[in-house]
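User: Assemble these into one structure.

Assistant: Restating your components, then the assembled model:
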Amino acid sequence: MGKYWASFKTAFRGESAYKLDMLIAVGVNIAFFFVFFYVWQAVYSNGGVTQINAYTLSNTITYYFITSIIFRLDPSAAIYLNWEVWDGSFTNELVRPYSAKLIYMVYALATMLLQVIMNLPFIVIMLIFARSYIIFPSLEMFGFFLVSLLLSALLYLAINMLLHSLSLRFGDQDANILLFNYIIAFLAGGIIPLNFLPTGAYNFLNLLPFKALFFVPCNVFLQKMATAQIYESWLQSVFWIAIFFGLYYFVFQNGLKRYAGTGR
Amino acid sequence: MKKYWRIFKVLFRNAIIRDLKIRGMIASWLLFELVGIIVTIVFFRAIFVNTPSLGGWSFYQVLFLYVFAEFIVQIYSATFKVGIRNIATNHIKKGDLDFYLIKPVDTMSLVALSNPRPYKLIPATFYFVLSVYCLIQSGLSVNLANVFWFIFLALDGIVLYTILIYLTVIPAFWLVRVWSLKDIASRINQFMRYPAGIFPRSLKIAFFIAFPILATSYIPAVTLFEPPKLIYIIYMVLVTFVFYVLLLVVWKLGEKHYASASS
């Protein structure tokens, strides 16, 4: 365990060496929140509507505030497995005295933690800017939200580790990782709240595991879920995290047999 | 000019040969763009169920603007994006800019032209077809003058967009290792996909004058939908010229600061 903790600290220090780089990388994403803020403000005022599927303007702005935070937990850019398989440097990790399967997750967690820290000033900016719209939950619900957020990050990590591990067998997955992350963000309610979609689509997407990435944490924060529903969603998340990590293990082990270490 | 066209043709041909070797990856990128189009339509459908207009524009006008903005981005991606991005990621940090500086052509142009991505013209075609569809569906009467000035301003918009993005990566001369400069453009360009009417006055001033990214898509689009306004045409030409001069000045300052030491 000690060697993973040491690797975590090293990765964290390495990533934070270029603070301005990370700060800009995180900060530019604030544009997402501002664009959707003005779009939805215009929709509610132009359309003369006070609610869209039980979401007031404040609910919708708060929803996008939370998605802006969750997007910074997106591990797709924090995992280097695909890149290192692509250029052959993955071999270096294979011969080191730790599990290559785990070490990429450790590196990713270090980067994700740094992204969260670097995002704090921008969260404050968003809070100040949209203070009259953002709704805060009770302390109890905020606790539930933090757990949901943690499960969301783990599920996101598990899905992305699986996507990256495909590179061992099928080569460079850069485009596919981007493609699947985009699709997943949409299916999870990262681009538009799922209940803004037609009922049929909403019911279908509710069956998929991806809602735990965005839709569930947002609705917990908005206090739109009963406690029993939250517990149920946590159980579902744990189940899907186990499934995706299991698949990752399987694909990684199989891919390793194919890995030639030549890079390109 | 002829010389640069010849250089671009050679680089473009080589890029096509390279792209044909990675067809699977290109198929994934194209699929990504297609999914993007579908998601965009679903997103705007969800919006327009609740409102008849956005910033005073109808569904098809807004979709046209979004698609047209994407078209500009794809044309930029097909021609200059990777070359310009490399300034932030490689050329200055690793000292690769030396190889461009010693060539008997303008360095700034050569860097921009150095890495075209021809396959990006395919999604640009998707967006073009979709924009024509949106225009027809919008039911607006568009005359020849609208089309002429739209094409003129669209070309101007592509040039202005390229200049603005170039300006966002030039700080790399001073900051050296700030890769994320390459991401600024792809985030800020989200603003150019929506009607200017939804943004407050302060943002309009910022994105029409200080960093006129909204002008690149909105002014050509509004010229297509409404009688062409001379003031818009003069403004676009003027602002493009001013920012081009600014780019030249900043580039020269950057070149002077460039130490050629790799890390």
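The CA atoms of residues 112 and 234 of chain B lie 27 Å apart.
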